[in-house]
Amino acid sequence: MPVVILSIAAAAIRGTAYYMRKRSKLKDGDKDIAKERQREKKIELSRGGSSLPTVVAHILHPEHELYLDFGQTYRCNACLQYGEGKRYRCRGLCGFRVHPNCALSYKMICDLFQTDLQTYAHKYMHPLSIIKDSSDSNCKHCKNKCKDLIRYHCNTCNKMFHLACAVHPTRLLSFLHPNHELELKTRPIDARCNVCYHSGKSNARVYCCKTCKFYVHPDCAIKFQYVKSLIHVDHILVFRPLPSYESAVCKGCNRECKRWRYTCSVCEGVNYHEDCLLRYEIVRSNASLEEVGHLCKRSFVKAFKDGFKDGFKDDFKDDMKEQFHDESVWDLIAQFLEALFS
Question: What is the pLDDT of residues 2-16, one digit of tens each?
Answer without folding.
Answer: 655 656 555 555 555
